[in-house]
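Here is the promised in-class demo. Please do not try to memorize the tokens; focus on the logic of going from shape to residues.
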């Protein structure tokens, strides 16, 4: 008729008397132990800790500490007090007649989070040593906007920092070069040249010292992963220029990855733009004055009407004698030639004096 399944154990063979007696004894002992445990808990004699500490005191003390934590302005003090408060809450839950395991586990999760944040705060406040160049860049470009020394060093590491030095006439970046790095000028002076080679303005350390855009919070995370070319050139115009170069893509990701860094970077970017605008206005006036001089001096002479117009422009826009002399020198004139109204007049005077 086919194979049959074997009968269950309790049907196939009778349990021996010894085994049955052993099972009965074990069951009785377990029930007696459980009853004793419940009876002692009901009488408040279960654990030494419960006899020594009233859990109600723990919850009151923990809440008082939590209130004290909320009144702290320092984050490290707040986190430390919350650790104490959370520990009291965990102890209260575990010392109940029937331990509250789930609330205690959630308390452990909060305790772990507070401990992690304390470690991070201590790491940020750790005493760090910066080199001379690092200290100079940090004080000018990062410290005023909320970056800590730890933030600064982490950015240098994550963005693959390079320290660059340029001589007069050398290009830190040429038009059409890949924009893989952004540079901060902390020593010297750099000319910003348009795509036609015209001078737009001069960058100096401080506000407006970033050669290019430092950070844009509205750009996507992968914005700088795509190849981009520079529309302008940066040329050193002082005896020596020194810059800090950071990888744009890595820097953008690092700043976007932490809300604190993103807020600080946004403040730094706004300040940099205002610095560029503030420096751009005098440079635009200087460029306009240079263009006016070029037109006035194109025939090699300066008539009284042109001289009066140039003087009015200088007075209106506060162009000093130094800028006036520098522009004349760039155009091949001297201050004496301009005063005489004719190019080469100063040389003729020197020749006459020699005779």
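The designed amino acids, position by position:
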């Amino acid at each position: 008729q086919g194979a049959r399944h074997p009968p269950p154990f309790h049907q196939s063979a009778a349990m021996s008397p010894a085994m049955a007696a052993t099972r009965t004894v074990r069951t009785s002992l377990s029930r007696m132990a459980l009853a004793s445990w419940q009876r002692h808990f009901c009488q408040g004699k279960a654990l030494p800790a419960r006899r020594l500490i009233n859990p109600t005191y723990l919850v009151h003390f923990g809440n008082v500490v939590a209130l004290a934590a909320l009144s702290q302005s320092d984050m490290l003090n707040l986190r430390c007090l919350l650790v104490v408060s959370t520990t009291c809450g965990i102890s209260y839950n575990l010392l109940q007649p029937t331990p509250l395991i789930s609330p205690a586990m959630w308390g452990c999760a909060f305790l772990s989070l507070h401990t992690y944040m304390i470690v991070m705060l201590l790491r940020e406040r750790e005493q760090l040593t910066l080199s001379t160049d690092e200290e100079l860049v940090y004080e000018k470009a990062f410290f005023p906007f909320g970056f800590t020394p730890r933030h600064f060093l982490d950015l240098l590491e994550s963005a693959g920092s390079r320290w660059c030095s340029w001589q007069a006439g050398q290009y830190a970046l040429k038009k059409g070069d890949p924009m893989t790095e952004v540079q901060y000028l902390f020593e010297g002076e750099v000319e910003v040249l348009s795509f036609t080679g015209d001078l737009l303005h001069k960058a100096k350390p401080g506000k407006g010292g970033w050669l290019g855009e430092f950070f844009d919070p509205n750009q996507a995370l992968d914005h700088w992963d795509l190849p981009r070319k520079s529309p302008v050139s940066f040329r050193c115009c002082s005896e020596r220029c020194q810059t800090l170069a950071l990888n744009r893509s890595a820097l953008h990701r690092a700043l976007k990855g932490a809300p604190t860094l993103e807020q600080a970077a946004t403040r730094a970017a706004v300040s940099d733009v205002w610095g560029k605008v503030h420096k751009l206005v005098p440079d635009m006036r200087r460029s306009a004055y240079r263009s006016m001089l070029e037109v006035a001096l194109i025939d090699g002479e300066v008539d009284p009407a042109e001289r009066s117009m140039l003087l009015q422009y200088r007075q209106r826009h506060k162009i000093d004698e130094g800028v006036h002399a520098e522009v004349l020198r760039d155009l091949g004139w001297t201050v004496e030639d301009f005063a005489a109204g004719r190019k080469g007049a100063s040389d003729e005077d020197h020749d006459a004096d020699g005779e």
